[in-house]
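Forwarding the complex inputs:
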Amino acid sequence: MESGIRRTIDWVDGRTGFETALRNFLSEEIPGSAGWAQVFGSVALFLFLTQAITGVLLAFNYAPTPGEAYESLLFIVRKVAAGKMIHGLHHWGASLMIIVVFIHMAQVFIYGAYKRPREATWIAGSILLLLTLAFGLTGYLLPWDNRAYWGTMVTTRIISSVPVVGSSLLRLIGAAEGIGVLTFARFYALHTMLLPAASVTLIAIHVYLVRRHGITPRPFEPKLTQRFYPRQAFRDVVAIFATFAILFAAAALLEVPLERLADPTDTSYVPRPEWYFLFLFQLLKLFQGAMEPIGTVVLPTIAVLALFAIPFVDRTRLERSRGRVLAAALVVLVFAIWGTLTAAAVLTSPPGSPPLLTAAPAAAWAQLPAEQIAGLGYFHSAHCDTCHNLLAGEPKPGPNLITSEVHHARPWLIQHFNNPSLVLPSTKVAPMHFSLPQLNALSLFIENLTPDSASKLDDIPMNVIQGAQTYVVSACGSCHKVNGAGGGIGPPLNGIADRRSKQWVKAHFLAPQKLSPESIMPPYHFSSAEENAILVYLFALPE
Amino acid sequence: MSDAESTRQTGLNIKRRQFLNGIVWGLGSLIFGALSGSAGAYLLAGAGKEHREEWTDAGDLPELRPGVPQEITFEQSRVDGWKVRNEKASAWVVLDNNGSLAAFSPLCTHLGCAYQWSAQQKQFSCPCHGSKFSVTGAVISGPAARSLDRYPTKLEGSRVWLGPVQVSRASD
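Prediction (whole assembly, two chains):
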């Protein structure tokens, strides 16, 4: 058996040289001083591969067009097995990637590993950093939720403020006419095609250069005294495993922030960039009016140029750079400035809306048809409970509506509400003055009473009942479905909380065609109490 | 390379070397397992199928003579990924001599081509690979191995309702 495997490996190696190449790769000679500080490049490479794998998996279930993108993402997260895990790995992996890349850079900088002859390695790495940030920026739009839309809005405005070429850049990313299908398609193509291809190429160059020049030894370190395998490989794998454990735990335990469907009319939305761009956001606040381009363009450009220039500015020879105290101090300073700006941005941010995915399971009553909830309201407002118990209670003159053996059909019930003495000569109940939809709702409520449904009625909030009543008297159910009941002309209203903001729905009541030109819905002018109640009701509906 | 040689090159004794080796492969396999397990579930388990044993209103039943099938088209809603879409569907409906109704799925059980009714030969024939089916849906000649798949049917007044397609078994 073992010799069979050996023979197969030898056969393949004889034709391809793969095994020899792998052996050579693993037995690379490295300085004896190499240790835990040198693991971060490997960790970054691992995270890149994880992002690639989870990215491809997401693309298998994802529709890259605005609107559909959001629906398909909800599908991935809520319906597809392990979809939440894959999405979580990709989302948190991006953040971890940024962290690891910066640690890697700080290590390289402090150790002076960018110096002659490793300038090209440093430059390739710096371009990889920019690509990583570009991944973050383009990926941010792809969920097409409010966060994505408004965050990208700010990004495109910053791009348009670049002197001279701003409007051309804007055209290039398809945002000249605002954020739309073109912007989306370009961000998607950048995120899934151009950036990965560019990254793979640069990673290959970067790793080749690292191999060519070897890991940077300490000053005066005489010679290469250990091999990459197994000791350094062990450290790399342990670090990779620790990173993966954190990533896996984050994906399993944390909710990925996903907000409502992107809503260009939601003027109440306060966008915030991803955490690693917060410092730029805060920086902008320092430069206002005509000075603004300093924060949006000039300073970031200087920072990037400075990054590339480092190996050419610091030309001290490696041997003399003892201690590198200054370098370490510089890193601390940069992180301190970054941390201060980020902290300031966090402190001034309004608390974000709670992520949708964590939405509490809908209350039991939310599954009931609107008529039954409204009917409960009419039951109380007509004081039916003076004569009738629903489930239990002090004996009352009329029959208990759930336990009673007698069940009347709807015509009898409506007669009983309209003109009680006609069907029950002995009764002293006064006629009620309800409209037909109200009578229907009350009848439906009575007809569908069961011990089970009655148990759901206890904890319905008052404004939900009022909202359901507004829904019933406005005959919303002639065109819309709620919990499967109602007309099919308009869209079903379940899950509207995920799709629309209250702001949008309010505006839609007043002038439906303004927001959905195809709609045949008439305008509704509710009193503010009615409007609040129906919004509370609609936004409480389960998905 | 031999153990002695690797010990010389790495300065590690065999036990230590084996330990490091084990950790590298062990942790690597754990990561690989977690990733490929998630990916496997994601790709293969798919979305929890919502069981929709729903009946579809396929419209008014056409005038049928016993033994003469007719194709009817209707609208059906289907869960398609993140969408529920209404799409056109069709069925071949036929009355047998006892007056009971059968409805066949319009796809040949061989490789899914749409078959047609041949009035002269009084059989269904598939244009792709030549399978023939009798008016009861049974295979007359191959390559199809299964008789035609059926919709459960029920009549409400003059309207015919079709249930989800029942796949026929090879021996049918």
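Chain B has two domains: 3-45, 56-162.
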